[in-house]
């Protein structure tokens, strides 16, 4: 699931880059910074997802942190931002990923490594 999220983040970074290039943003610097942030989080999540696949002990921490950030972003998008169709699926995705990482089976798999 983390690898799918990473792919979606990287695709989102490409879409943001395309929109920045083809439109007239208020601030090109801010728009490019947003592309860099989204791309960085996509790459970080992809690396952590590869670690999860190998059951590397270091990989759970970054995935948990990124899921918490994704959940906060989804919440702020859904409720204060007024975009529930975008924000609520992000919150559900983050909660599902955190739940899967906290299941006894997942914890046992990392303990046995």
Topology record:
Layout: H1 2-22, H2 28-53, H3 60-78, H4 84-102, H5 104-112
Helix pairs in contact: 1-2, 2-3, 3-4
**Helical proportion, percent range:** over 70%
CA-based shape? globular
Mean pLDDT across the residues is 93
Number of domains: 1
Nearest-angstrom radius of gyration?
Answer: 16 Å
Query: How many H/I helices?
Result: 5
Unreliable stretches (pLDDT < 50, length at least 5) are none
Strand proportion: under 5%
Distance between the termini: 21 Å
SSE-based structural type: mainly alpha
Major sheet, described briefly?
none
Q: Could you give the order of the helices and strands?
A: HHHHH
Strand tally is 0
Q: Can you put this structure into words, describing what you see?
A:
- Keywords: Membrane, Transmembrane, Transmembrane helix.
- The chain crosses the membrane at residues 32-51, 63-79, 85-103.
- This protein has one domain (2-112).
- Helix content is 83%, strand content 0%.
- It has helices at 2-22, 28-53, 60-78, 84-102, 104-112.
- The protein is built from five helices and no strands.
- The two termini are 21 Å apart.
- It is globular and about 55 Å long.
- The mean pLDDT is 93.
- It is mainly alpha-helical and 113 residues long.
- Helix 3 packs antiparallel against helix 4.
């Amino acid at each position: 699931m983390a690898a799918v999220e990473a792919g979606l983040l990287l695709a989102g970074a490409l879409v943001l880059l395309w929109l920045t290039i083809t439109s007239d943003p208020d601030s090109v610097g801010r728009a490019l910074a947003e592309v860099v942030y989204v791309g960085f989080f996509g790459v970080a999540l992809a690396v952590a997802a590869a670690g999860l696949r190998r059951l590397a002990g270091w990989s759970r921490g970054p995935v948990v942190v990124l899921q918490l950030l994704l959940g906060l972003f989804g919440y702020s998008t859904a409720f204060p931002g007024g975009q529930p169709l975008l924000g609520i699926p992000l919150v559900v995705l983050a909660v599902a990923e955190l739940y899967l990482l906290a299941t006894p089976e997942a914890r046992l798999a990392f303990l046995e490594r």
